[in-house]
Amino acid sequence: MADRGASALSLPDDWPDHPDPILALNRMGSFDWDLDAGVMQMDAQAHEIFDVRPDEYDDRPECLGDRVPSGEALRLDTVVSQALKDGSENYGAYFRVRRRDGSLRWTHTQGYIRRDETGRPRRIIGIVRDATQELSDGEARREQAEQEGIRRRQTNVVQLTTAALAHARTVKDVIDVLKDTHGLTHLGATSLVIGLVEAGRIRLIAEGPADGFVPGTELTGIDEPYPMSEAVRTLSPCFIESPEEFAERYPKLWQGITGLDITSAAYLPLIVQARPIGAMGLLYSDRLGFSAEDRNILVALGSSISQSLQRAMFYEQEMDLAQGLQQAMLPRTIPSVPGADLAVRYRAATIGGSVGRDIGGDWYDLIPLPGGRVGAVIGDVQGHDTHAAAVMGQLRIVLRAYAAEGHPPATVMARASVFLHELDTDRSATCLYAEADLSTGVLQMVRAGHIDPLVRRTDGSCRRVPVPGGLPLGLSAEFGQLDYPVGTMELDPGDTLLLCTDGLVERPGADLDDGMENLSALITDGPDDVRDLADRLIELAGERGGDDDVALLLLRRRVLDGPRPGGRLRQHVPPGDPGALSEARRLIRTAVAAWGAPERTDEIELVADEMITNVLMHTEGSAVLTLRLLTGGGRRVRVEVEDSSSALPRPREAGESGVSGRGLLLVETLTDVWGVEARGGGKCVWGEFVVAKDSGAA
């Protein structure tokens, strides 16, 4: 029965007298080790590998003791013994051989164990070969792989830090990225300090370890004995490799950080276009010294951080200019208005990190008007850039001028549209103008493509107020559609009017009506005070983000302590618009009742209606109705109706049907005094109604 080792390696009985030529060609020696006899025969190539002559080797393994160092022999015996015990059919091991000249050469052996039928090891047949070159090549490969790994780690650190800094827009953002736990992990440091060069000195903007600020270092000179100053002064990194070196080179700074367990530090100049903009210090508590690879990666990081800081500094400078322009275009102050609580807010958008795009054309304005009235404006010029802000500023001034001249709301809006069209810009604008008489609560509103206003009532409920509208400013003039219908409503004492731009309402992919409902719900649940409510709404807008500006104006009508003199209301009534005539009648009833003369409401309404109808029937233009409350010599309501015809009214006899010819007779009968005045190319028919005499009159 063949022994168990035959399956592993079949060799002739006289092996190794005739070794396989392949072994010789590969410079491999062979051996046959009889375990029972303790004899190990080797061929000539094996003798060469062990560097022993035939007369020096008596086929006993012990003879190799001078060639195999004791530590190597012990390790080799352990491998062989373990293979013999655990039933293995083969083993392999690397060990070193000491040659005659004392040099050590790596050797590899591979042995095949032949056992008898009981499994007892009887014989080991194997090969040996010189493995020095093999291991040298492997070591070189390992070193190369290690170097490549280091380079990959360096590249990875730089890439991770650069990627994190790519989203940093301000200097604070850059510092936050670097001081973040993950940022410091990438850098390998426990804390950092950063200083920027300003007017020949270094201003500290990141103070290093918690509770580690050193007094006197917030602002230092470039020539002072600090490592950050040295890095800026020499434009070279400053590496401190031990606490002892730190204390020796910079004793003044070391005294302030002795208790912080700093073991080493690296101070890097932050250089952009060959000019130092500052320096960064990385402080370590778990390392001593810096390898060449460490230094290379820190220099690379310093370059990346320098670019990010420079970009952030440019961004902040441009933002300061943009915000200065925005603030210059918006009203510096909002005037106090007797009878009203006011609040205005503005929030700039943040769009994709683009410098100069955090400024837009949203604006608000509040315009005191004669007769105790006030005009409230909200608008939005197309675009998010300095051009939009510049157009906005011009539009705001023009609207304010037209309103202050006394033009009715529809005329103010039409003229503003013509102005924007003639400005020869590619921008349009949406706008809403509301003119309020706080003595009566009457609101007259015109809308140019803007979203509707909202009103919160005294019971807390809030609703959207539909206002008939026209085209946006600029477009209406381009298409010749300058008629802006006027919507009228009454603002009761305690009611709040809210005007806003669409940035407070619209969201990408969301319906505008849903946005208005959500805003109404927020207003309903919001604080009663208009300033607190404005703060809350603008805070929510900031939390939701968004790529549009937000302008907001809140006006709450207060309850007056006494009657308010000198009110004035105006209403534009175009021909062929029955709704406008109905609005004029409603305006009259509301105003006269608010002025404390409800008993004369019907008379005043009838006279005004007759005057307006006369204009619409006998001229080719519109009628402009003006109501005034006059004081002095008694309180009087004055009704004025202007038109563009210079032809004066004349009395006529009523026809056979009796349906015409009675207009002036009606005016003369119902008014206390009336008359006609020339107004430029047209005229004004007016009438006055005494609603209360002076207390001293007879």
Secondary-structure map with pairings?
Blueprint (H helix, E strand, L loop, with lengths): L20 H5 L2 E7 L4 E4 L1 H7 L19 H16 L4 E9 L5 E12 L5 E10 L1 H34 L5 H9 L1 H7 L3 E8 L2 E7 L11 E3 L5 H8 L3 E3 L2 H7 L1 H7 L6 E9 L2 E10 L7 H38 L10 E8 L13 E9 L3 E9 L4 H19 L4 H14 L6 E9 L4 E7 L5 E3 L5 E3 L4 E2 L4 H4 L8 E4 L5 E5 L11 H14 L4 H15 L5 E8 L10 E6 L4 H17 L6 H18 L4 E8 L4 E9 L19 H8 L2 E7 L2 E11 L6
Parallel strand pairs: 16-19
Antiparallel strand pairs: 1-2, 1-5, 3-4, 4-5, 6-7, 6-11, 7-8, 9-10, 10-11, 12-22, 13-14, 14-15, 15-16, 16-20, 17-18, 17-21, 21-22, 23-24, 24-25, 25-27, 26-27
Helix pairs in contact: 4-10, 8-9, 10-11, 11-12, 16-17, 17-18
Your description of this structure?
With 698 residues, the protein is α+β, with helices and mostly antiparallel strands. It has 18 helices and 27 strands. A 6-stranded antiparallel sheet has the order 8-7-6-11-10-9, sandwiched between helices. Strands 13, 14, 15, 16, 19 and 20 form a 6-stranded mixed sheet that branches. α10 runs parallel beside α11 and α11 packs antiparallel against α12. The longest helix has 38 residues. The N and C termini lie far apart (154 Å). The relative contact order is 0.06. The N terminus is likely disordered.
Strands, total number: 27
Share of helix, binned? 25-40%
Query: What would you call the shape?
Result: elongated
Distance between the termini: 154 Å
**Structure classification:** alpha+beta
Strand content: 25-35%
For the sheet with most strands, the description reads: 6 strands, antiparallel
Question: Which segments are poorly predicted (pLDDT under 50) over 5 or more consecutive residues?
Answer: 1-10, 351-356
Rg over CA atoms, rounded to whole Å, is: 48 Å
Mean pLDDT: 81
Helical run tally: 18
Please, what is the oligomeric state?
single chain
Order of neighbouring strands in the sheet with most strands: 8-7-6-11-10-9
